[in-house]
């Protein structure tokens, strides 16, 4: 009897000693922005929870890393970001991480559909001297090119296309399965479930947005090209290319003229910036206002929030553009 109790005690002790090893088997994953974090959370569901750097409501355009963010990066085994033209604040910290850390730069690594920047005229201009690191560079056409290291002429808002979301999910699932083969089956199951849901949502949005395809609108900053192109929408311009910089008087006059010339039905602001300028722009034009959120500022973490992000964009556009 005593020997049985001793054996049971030793077995329990061995299990307790092994438990931390089992719990730590999943890689420590850090993700830059909410929409990508939501997709990665879905892939890792049932395995572990990735860490998010840029919280909801903040903008990657001007984010500053906190000490806690630096600690997360230093302990990471996988870091997933879009690229330096969107999250410029990450470029130097990532360069200082050891080679053993897997750094997934989605714009470069994930074989995405990519569109070149729209600049000049109705899309504002890219001011190469103001020190803002978002999407600089002039265009050399490669709307659907892949694998280039030099992507400064590419629009970074790649997650707003369900096609790109599917490509991101496939690529990240492969990376995680390679890094963590013990959970490869789970990553694969989660990937397939997300892909099926994306396909269903895409068909729903196609049908919902078709009636407003010819209705022109103005966005606060040019963040929606992937969504607009995918669903055949009719954008008429942006207020500013750099959401951290206020538009000047000349730009305001240009946009007011553009609203009138294009018969733009709506001018959309964003929750991250809430620009009072939108009210000035539409005054006396007959245009309405709406809100588009490219990041899902108020949505909780998790893959459901990625689907909700696209749902919200579609519904906001339909609500504003469908009004008589």
Automatic annotation (TrEMBL):
Signal sequence region: 1-25
One Pfam family linked to the record: ZnuA
The keyword Ion transport is assigned to this record: yes
Keywords for this protein: Disulfide bond, Ion transport, Metal-binding, Periplasm, Signal, Transport, Zinc, Zinc transport
GO MF: metal ion binding
Chief localization: periplasm
Biased composition (Basic residues): 137-149
Biased composition (Basic and acidic residues): 124-136
InterPro entries named among the record's database cross-references: Bact_metal-bind_prot9, ZnuA, ZnuA-like
Subcellular locations according to the entry: Periplasm
Region Disordered, annotated ranges: 124-155
Any one GO biological process: zinc ion transport
One cellular component term from this protein's GO annotations in UniProt: periplasmic space
Cited function: Part of the ATP-binding cassette (ABC) transport system ZnuABC involved in zinc import. Binds zinc with high affinity and specificity and delivers it to the membrane permease for translocation into the cytoplasm.
Family per similarity comment: Belongs to the bacterial solute-binding protein 9 family.
Protein's name according to its UniProt entry: High-affinity zinc uptake system protein ZnuA
Originating organism: Ectothiorhodospira magna
Lineage: Bacteria, Pseudomonadati, Pseudomonadota, Gammaproteobacteria, Chromatiales
């Amino acid at each position: 009897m005593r020997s049985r109790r001793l054996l049971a005690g030793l077995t329990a002790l061995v299990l307790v000693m092994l438990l931390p090893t089992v719990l730590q088997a999943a890689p420590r994953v850090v993700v830059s922005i909410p929409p990508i974090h939501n997709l990665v959370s879905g892939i890792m569901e049932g395995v572990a929870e990735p860490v998010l750097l840029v919280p909801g409501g903040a903008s990657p355009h001007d984010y500053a890393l906190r000490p806690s963010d630096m600690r997360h990066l230093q302990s990471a085994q996988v870091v997933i970001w879009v690229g330096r033209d969107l999250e410029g604040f990450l470029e130097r910290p990532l360069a200082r991480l050891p080679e053993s850390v897997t750094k997934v730069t989605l714009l470069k690594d994930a074989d995405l559909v990519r569109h070149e920047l729209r600049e000049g005229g109705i899309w504002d201009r890219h001011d190469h001297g103001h020190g803002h690191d978002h999407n600089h560079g002039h265009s050399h056409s490669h709307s659907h090119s892949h694998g280039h290291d030099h992507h400064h002429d590419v629009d970074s808002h790649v997650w707003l296309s369900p096609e790109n979301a599917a490509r991101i999910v496939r690529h990240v699932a492969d990376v995680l399965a390679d890094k963590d083969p013990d959970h490869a089956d789970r990553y694969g199951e989660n990937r397939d479930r997300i892909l099926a849901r994306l396909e269903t949502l895409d068909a729903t949005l196609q049908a919902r947005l078709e009636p407003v395809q010819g209705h022109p609108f103005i966005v606060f900053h040019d963040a929606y090209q992937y969504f607009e192109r995918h669903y055949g929408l009719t954008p008429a311009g942006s207020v500013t290319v750099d959401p951290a910089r206020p538009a000047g008087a000349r730009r305001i006059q240009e946009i007011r003229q553009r609203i009138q010339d294009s018969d733009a039905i709506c001018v959309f602001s964003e929750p991250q910036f809430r620009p009072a300028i939108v009210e000035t722009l539409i005054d006396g034009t007959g245009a309405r206002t709406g809100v588009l959120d490219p990041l899902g500022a108020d949505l909780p973490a998790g893959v459901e929030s990625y689907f909700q992000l696209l749902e919200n964009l579609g519904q906001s556009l339909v609500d504003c553009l469908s009004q008589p």
